[in-house]
Specification:
The protein is an alpha+beta fold. It folds into 3 domains: about 100 residues; about 110 residues, Periplasmic binding protein-like II (D-Maltodextrin-Binding Protein, domain 2); about 250 residues, Aminopeptidase (3-Layer(aba) Sandwich). About 45% of the residues lie in helices and about 25% in strands. It is built from 15 helices and 19 strands. The chain has a 6-stranded mixed sheet, sandwiched between helices. It has a 5-stranded mixed sheet with strand order 3-2-4-1-5, sandwiched between helices. A two-stranded antiparallel sheet has the order 9-10. A hairpin with a 3-residue loop joins β18 and β19. α1 runs parallel beside α3. The chain is globular.
């Protein structure tokens, strides 16, 4: 009898332990379910009815696993089910947290970053700021605010403000450095590629002895549209740098996207990067690509005046992000009107081409292989943008969602708010309608003109064709109406 009593106690003890272990996983499942529902609600990307239905489904699963774990015969199965559901909920929670973090990082952008340097000739004996106390500095009036901030730092390093000569442009300041008229110059790294067009050996002839990162709050366009019920215009800017998305840079891609959520139509208008446009802030003319050096707000204002429109938002992406986003999407398909070899030696066939990130970037950047150069590049850029948009709006994004979020996180920014993006996503999820994406590329003729950035040095520019501009205005207006 004693043995039977001990055996029954042993069995009872182990049943209680198994039941307890099962109950722990059920309650973990419940906590994760609550966390997922709260996260889905807070991230504000799903229609409310989806959140309610999802919560109800999770409640049903909780009650099911709770019932199974409390029943003697199905306790093991209930525990396994609770573990599996908890693991899936944990993964889902991870994706939701990542999405919230990325959206928080890329939205509401209002800062630009300038990398300011002090340059001397490569063979100059100076190795640091302390060695330039008796030098005459050359500065550029075209970038006065950043120059003043850099000169303040230099003054602290030297114990006093050095002698300085002001030039109207960085091109003139660099010329003075090359000629020995000044010993050092203050320099904005955003101009480096521009200066290489005048001085091909610029990088080899100069070196940096001091650097300062300057972050500035900028006045950017802030939309006030009800994005699911009113048409709006987005400026898409592709900058020619790798790394920090807020870094000041030329804009190699300049596309206006007119979005009409009522008709589900997007009209893309591409403007050649070398278009000769007025910089409204400075009252002078320059290449459109150079407007980006003075901040994205200057690029926007130049395009607003050119097309007589109001830009509501912007999206900015750098080359790093471009490649990573295409790779994260699993590649894209674009059509080439003719076979050609790109600047990096990559060959593209006439017809459909399957592109990974690196090949997509080569396709979008090439211009010298075409008889109409920059105009064909603009058309190719829109093909790539359209292919990315179509794939991102399709179910094909789901298997690669985490990778797309990782790519977007550090490589793009937008002035749209998180709530506006959420409204668009919810609208798309609640609708079966696809998007009709149309493209138009503005053309013009090549000429040589003086530019604000270069000062006295004339550059090759594109004079926009008036009839082409008029057609672009009409397309934008029609889609907005």
């Amino acid at each position: 009898m004693a043995n039977q009593y001990n055996y029954n106690n042993y069995e009872s003890y182990h049943r209680r332990r198994k039941k307890k272990r099962g109950s722990v996983w059920v309650w973990i499942q419940l906590l994760l379910s609550i966390a997922v529902v709260i996260s889905v609600y807070m991230i504000d990307l799903f229609p409310l009815e989806y959140v309610i239905i999802g919560g109800a489904v999770l409640l049903v699963f909780f009650l099911l696993t709770l019932g199974l774990c409390n029943a003697y015969r199905s306790r093991s199965g209930g525990r396994v089910l609770a573990v599996l559901i908890s693991l899936m909920l944990g993964v889902a929670l991870g994706y939701l947290i990542k999405t919230y973090s990325v959206l928080d990082r890329i939205t509401g952008a209002d800062t630009k970053t300038d990398e300011m340097s002090v340059l001397v000739l490569y063979d100059d004996p100076a190795q640091s700021i302390g060695d330039t106390g008796y030098y005459i500095y050359g500065t550029a009036a075209v970038d006065q605010k950043n120059t003043d901030k850099l000169m303040e730092d230099i003054s602290k390093e030297l114990g006093g403000m050095p002698s300085a000569t002001s030039f109207s442009s960085y091109a003139e300041a660099v010329g003075a450095l090359m000629n020995g008229d000044v010993g050092a110059i203050t320099f904005n790294e955003a101009y480096r590629q521009i200066l290489k067009e005048i001085y091909p050996d610029f990088n080899e002839q100069t070196r940096v002895i001091y650097s300062k990162t300057i972050k500035t709050k900028v006045n950017v366009t802030k939309g006030s549209r009800k994005v699911t019920r009113e048409p709006f215009i987005v400026y898409i800017s592709g900058i020619d740098v790798y790394g920090d998305i807020s870094q000041t840079s030329r804009s190699d891609v300049n596309i206006l996207a007119s979005v009409n959520p009522l008709t589900h139509k997007v009209q893309l208008i591409s403007t050649p990067r070398d278009s000769y446009v007025e910089l409204p802030t400075y009252g002078d003319y320059d290449k459109l690509t150079h407007a980006g050096i003075y901040g994205i707000s200057e690029s926007i204002r130049a395009l607003e005046e050119l097309y007589d429109v109001k830009v509501d938002y912007y999206v900015r992406v750098n080359f790093t992000g471009f490649e990573e986003i295409v790779d994260a999407l699993g590649g894209i398909t674009v059509y080439a009107e003719e076979g050609f070899t790109a600047w990096d030696g990559t060959w593209f066939d006439e017809g459909e081409n399957e592109l990974d990130g690196a090949r997509a970037l080569s396709f979008a950047r090439e211009r010298k292989a075409f008889s109409d150069g920059d105009f064909q590049r603009g058309r190719n850029q829109m093909k790539v943008i359209k292919a990315i948009a179509e794939k991102a709006l399709s179910p094909a994004i789901l298997p690669n969602y985490g990778s797309v979020m990782d790519a977007a996180g550090g490589s793009m920014e937008t002035s749209m708010s998180r709530s506006e993006i959420g409204d668009l996503v919810k609208m798309q999820m609640s609708s079966d309608n696809g998007w009709d994406i149309e493209t138009y590329a503005v053309i013009g003729y090549v000429d040589s003109r003086m530019t604000y950035s270069y000062g006295a040095s004339p550059l090759s520019v594109v004079i926009p064709d008036e009839s082409s501009i008029a057609e672009a205005k009409l397309l934008l207006q029609e889609n907005q109406n």
